[in-house]
């Protein structure tokens, strides 16, 4: 796909539903009694993978025009899948569902695409095994395909080396099937959607600092879930509007949970003009509209506790930094190496193809911004965030860019190119 240079961006958009929250609404709805009604559900490929896994385990899930209905069967209502569960491109599906499968009395297998097959699962296999789960990597490489033989689990207090909401959520979900209270402590707080939503479904979840705990065997009841817009998807239009002079864009209904809003802090530190309007809550999550105006940006340092709050936005932050005046340093972000691609590598290699002065490091990158970038062909491969981030870079490059495998954006944002075109007209 050819993405052309754009002049100013103008108008309003409604951002599609949050991917993390959409996955969780399907999962927790499936484990509840009664029906869960989900509005603004993200119909991205990753969340559709979660739906198909639970359908395969006997849960009736209806995709209506304005909502998704999950007819839950309670904590112990899943049935043994007859086929391999296909998590597609989705790390979230794989790691969260593994915690659930470990506690359910049947045998299951989980697999996914060539990107998922390279992603580390040892980080969940280790704590699950401490809970006495029976989980094996069928190729003996700590990746999918996984085989899980479920049974009652042993409660643990686990200290995780990585700040990962997927690891934390996996253990908390396994804790639903444990013989006591299970807790997880992480080095830095990661997104807390699991804790917030499980509590609203009736689970006894407590959070204190970076420790979350859960009591076993609750009665979960179906809920109405209104999914906020995904700040990780909004990030592309935040970057686009900030970078193109004269832009003014209103992004409606964006989830701004403090464990996710690091992009707003970084954009502000770079000199970006972003106003939060109309603050409210949706299903226990803070939401607002964002008014973003073209700004002249300068470099910054992105590090420490901020990293988990913007981990998926680093590719597009790097694009912003490439056009900003001065140096941007991103550190403490080694987790980038284990996403859909090694994002330290794919971001820096692709920025170099455009003529950017950028150096990868062990845990991030150093970007010398402000050079005029030139046109090139960029291959997004199996990484949706690389596709969308470089589509945003193209808006500021004479001759634009040729984006290969642009369709991978459908993993988290099926209408991305349509929305981009609408705002750039
Ligand atoms: O829990 C979640 O929904 C997610 C957690 C993050 O992954 P990690 O937990 O591996 O950091 C994030 O990158 C992913 O897109 C979604
Ligand atoms: C890392 C991501 O997702 P997941 O881990 O669910 O594949 C992402 O969306 O950038």
From TrEMBL:
UniProt binding sites for phosphoenolpyruvate: 19, 91, 119, 166, 343, 385
Pfam families: EPSP_synthase
EC number: 2.5.1.19
Molecular function via GO: 3-phosphoshikimate 1-carboxyvinyltransferase activity
Gene3D superfamilies in alphabetical order: Enolpyruvate transferase domain
PROSITE patterns (alphabetical): EPSP_SYNTHASE_1, EPSP_SYNTHASE_2
Residues involved in 3-phosphoshikimate binding: 19-20, 24, 164, 166, 312, 339
Family the entry assigns: Belongs to the EPSP synthase family.
Protein name listed in UniProt: 3-phosphoshikimate 1-carboxyvinyltransferase
Organism: Roseburia amylophila
């Amino acid at each position: 796909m050819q993405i052309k240079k754009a002049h100013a961006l103008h108008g309003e958009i409604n951002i599609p539903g949050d991917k993390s929250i959409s996955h969780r609404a399907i999962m927790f709805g499936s484990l509840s009694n009664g029906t869960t009604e989900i509005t603004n559900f993200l119909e991205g490929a990753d969340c559709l993978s979660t739906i198909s896994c639970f359908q395969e385990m006997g849960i009736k899930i209806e995709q209506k025009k304005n909502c998704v209905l999950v007819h839950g069967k309670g904590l112990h209502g899943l049935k043994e899948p007859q086929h391999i569960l296909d998590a597609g491109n989705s790390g979230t599906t794989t790691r969260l569902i593994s915690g659930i499968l470990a506690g359910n009395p049947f045998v299951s297998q989980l697999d996914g695409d060539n990107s998922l097959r390279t992603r580390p699962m040892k980080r969940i296999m280790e704590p699950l095994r401490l809970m006495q789960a029976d989980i094996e990597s069928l190729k003996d490489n700590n990746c999918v395909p996984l085989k899980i033989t479920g049974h009652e689990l042993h409660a643990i207090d686990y200290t995780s080396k990585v700040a990962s909401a997927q690891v934390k959520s996996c253990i908390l979900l396994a804790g639903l099937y444990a013989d006591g209270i299970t807790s997880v402590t992480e080095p830095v707080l990661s997104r807390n959607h699991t804790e917030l939503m499980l509590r609203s479904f009736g689970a006894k979840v407590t959070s204190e600092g970076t420790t979350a705990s859960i009591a076993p065997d609750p009665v979960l009841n179906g809920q109405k879930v209104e999914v906020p817009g995904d700040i990780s998807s909004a990030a592309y239009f935040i970057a686009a509007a900030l970078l193109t002079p004269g832009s003014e864009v209103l992004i409606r209904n964006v989830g701004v949970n403090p464990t996710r809003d690091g992009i707003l802090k970084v954009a502000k530190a770079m000199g970006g003009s972003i106003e939060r309007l109309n603050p409210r809550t949706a299903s226990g999550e803070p939401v607002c509209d964002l008014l973003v105006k073209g700004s002249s940006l300068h470099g910054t340092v992105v590090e420490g506790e901020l990293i988990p709050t913007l981990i998926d936005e680093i590719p597009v932050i790097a694009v912003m930094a490439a056009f900003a005046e001065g140096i941007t340093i991103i550190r403490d972000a080694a987790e980038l190496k284990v996403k859909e691609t090694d994002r330290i590598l794919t971001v820096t290699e692709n920025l170099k193809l455009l003529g950017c002065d950028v150096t990868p490091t062990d845990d991030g990158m150093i970007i010398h911004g402000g050079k005029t970038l030139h046109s090139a062909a960029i291959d997004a491969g199996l990484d949706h965030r690389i596709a969308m981030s470089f589509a945003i870079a193209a808006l500021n490059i004479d001759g634009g860019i040729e984006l290969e495998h642009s369709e991978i954006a459908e993993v988290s944002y099926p209408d991305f190119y349509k929305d981009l075109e609408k705002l750039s007209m």
